[in-house]
Amino acid sequence: AFDALVTCPSHGFVDVPDYYAKVSAGPHLHRIELPTLVVHADDDPIVPVAPLARFDRSRHVDVVVTRGGGHVGFVGGPASLWGASSAVARAIAHFERYL
Question: For residue range 20-60, what is the model confidence (pLDDT) as tens digits?
Fold first, then answer.
């Protein structure tokens, strides 16, 4: 509903299907050739995790779905506000492996 009311009209998209067809990364995951880490929370209120399973991914794409974390938080609880959350730790491990 938000995309129909705000995102599409604000950015020149015809409608929600037009918006998703033009901006979704999903259809391109099979073409990725560099090691890529996708971190996604199972409770993201903006970008649902379910569509991620519909798309083929290349062998270079590693997907981690965290339990909780919302849209950009990935905070495991109050104690992790001051340290690396599990998602941040996974990202660091990914970068150490490939950089």
Answer: 999 988 889 999 999 999 888 888 888 888 888 888 999 99
How far is residue 30 CA from its own chain's centroid? 15
Burial label, 19 (beta-carbon count in 10 A; 0-12, 13-18, 19+): middle
Q: Three-state SS for 74?
A: coil
SS3 content of the chain, % helix, strand, coil (to 5): 45, 10, 40
* E runs forming strands in 32-93: 36-41, 61-66
User: For a pLDDT cut of 90, what percent of the chain falls above it?
Assistant: 36
How far is residue 66's CA from residue 87's CA, in Å, rounded to a whole number? 7
